[in-house]
Amino acid sequence: MDTVLMVGTRKGLWLGTSDEAREDWEFTGPHFDMEEVYSCLVDTRGDRPRLLAGTSSPWLGPQVRRSEDLGTTWQDTPGGAVRFPDGVDATVERVWQLVPGAEPGVVYAGTEPGAVFRSADGGETFALEQALWDHPHRPQWNAGFGGQAFHTVLPHPADPGSVTVALSTGGVYQTSDGGASWQPRNQGIRAEFLPEGQQYPEFGQCVHKVTRHPARPERLYLQNHGGVYRSDDHGGSWHSIAAGLPADFGFPIVVHPHEPDTVYVFPINGGDGRYPPQAKARVWRSRDAGETWEELAKGLPDGFFVAVMRDAMCADDHERAGLYFGARNGAVWGSADEGDTWRQLVCDLPDVMCVRAAAV
């Protein structure tokens, strides 16, 4: 079984391939040269894998491209696929998220400005989740420094009517009725940038990323703008699991593909220096759902003055999971042993925004 690694950057997409050992890698690219690639998906459902890439051209706008042959050839989707319907006074600027749904052929897209779209044909056409777009909270959702976008879409693995989403700065929302209505799910998440006494609002938190394991869908993990959290009741309430980390600020949070209690983060300073504490690139792992943390450093560099963005860290689904992260200095690092040891896979790419990997 082979491995494919998609690396989306501010100036195109690179594709890495390796065997199951994941020691030697070959990269091709750039695909979609000079286009921003904020989202990638290796969809392993069906008879053969399908690659999806959310690209954005400064001249032609956003596009979702798909490949049935692991990137040898690509097809554009009709009209860009992700577009607001007639009568909506908005234009999609970027596709920040592409994820598979619980049903065959279903793919969700999260966009900037903050909207969620659903495809029932494998990512060829998309329809707006209208009730979320019309939510009465939307006029009060603000844009973070990276823009206002739904950067997290988590379809429930067993309930097609349930989807959890997150945006900055609006927080976590959830539907249990197939998108007919959406409720905020932010109880216990702190908005540290608000005045004292107002830091636990119903919505408006700057959530950076949310994840979960399909075997335990009621448990969610969240990396916040200052805070790392866990929910054991499907987002109904949240409690901090940041104790033991060198910083509670960061962007990505990744759950192990086979172990629901194992989770990874990449802490960075929350002040002006958005790079790891002491400028040391370190991944931190918890094997007990965030109760305790261990530092993973073997093979990772010191003097690392860059950040890892919210979708620039991922795991593959090999029996012994591989971990990957890409940084804003254009380097991609990988581990074939669940984070115990690391090596640089490729360097000198443009600013890395997204990495996605899978066994194929």
Structure description:
- The protein is mostly beta strands.
- The chain has one helix spanning 130-133, and strands at residues 3-9, 12-18, 26-31, 36-43, 50-57, 61-67, 75-76, 94-100, 107-112, 115-119, 127-128, 149-155, 163-168, 171-175, 183-184, 207-213, 216-224, 228-231, 239-240, 249-255, 263-268, 283-286, 294-296, 313-315, 323-326, 332-335, 343-346, 352-359.
- The strands form 7 sheets. A 4-stranded antiparallel beta sheet has the order 3-2-1-28, with no helix packed on it.
- Strand 20 (249-255) and strand 21 (263-268) form a beta hairpin.
- The radius of gyration is 19 Å and the shape is globular.
- The N and C termini lie close together (6 Å).
- The model has no long low-confidence stretch (mean pLDDT 95).
- It comes from Nocardioides koreensis.
- This is Exo-alpha-sialidase.
How would you summarize this macromolecular structure in one to three sentences?
The protein has 360 residues and is an all-beta fold. Helices cover 1% and strands 42% of the residues. The termini are close together.
End-to-end separation: 6 Å
Task: Please bin the fraction of helical residues.
Answer: under 10%
Number of strands: 28
Low-confidence stretches: none
Order of helices and strands: EEEEEEEEEEEHEEEEEEEEEEEEEEEEE
Gyration radius (Cα, Å) is: 19 Å
Strand order of the largest sheet: 3-2-1-28
Largest sheet composition: 4 strands, antiparallel
Number of helices: 1
What is the percentage of strand-forming residues?
35-45%
Look at the helices and sheets and give the structural class.
mainly beta
Provide mean pLDDT, rounded.
Answer: 95
- Which shape, going by the Cα principal axes? globular
